[in-house]
Design brief:
There is one protein chain. By secondary structure, the chain is of the alpha+beta class. Helices cover 29% and strands 35% of the residues. The protein contains 3 helices and 4 strands. A 4-stranded antiparallel beta sheet has the order 2-3-1-4.
């Protein structure tokens, strides 16, 4: 299983909810076994950088993750979210 974690910060904190709504579009993509978007509790800073939102998803394998990223909704989400975000940090790892 592949775990996919992405951190986002809004360029303007007022846009955090719009970013969250855009990221929730990704839940419609069928390749994820599990998908969620949550607001960061801000309990720990990452190199002093504010992280507003966290995406967490699980995929059966690297092929499923690649299919998720190739889906047209993924491109729609990027078009909506990229102009509103400042930071994006992504990490993928094999569980187990």
């Amino acid at each position: 299983m592949i775990r996919h974690i992405v951190f986002f910060s809004a360029a303007d904190p007022e846009d955090a909810e719009r970013i969250r709504d855009g990221l929730m579009m990704l839940a419609q993509i069928p390749h994820a076994r599990h998908f969620e978007v949550g607001r960061n509790l801000q309990s720990d800073a990452i190199n002093g950088t504010r992280v507003d939102l966290v995406v967490y998803a699980e995929f059966e394998d690297e092929a499923a993750l690649a299919a998720y990223k190739a889906h047209p909704i993924y491109a729609e989400c990027i078009a909506l979210v990229r102009p509103l975000r400042d930071l994006r940090i992504a990490a993928d790892f094999k569980a187990g």
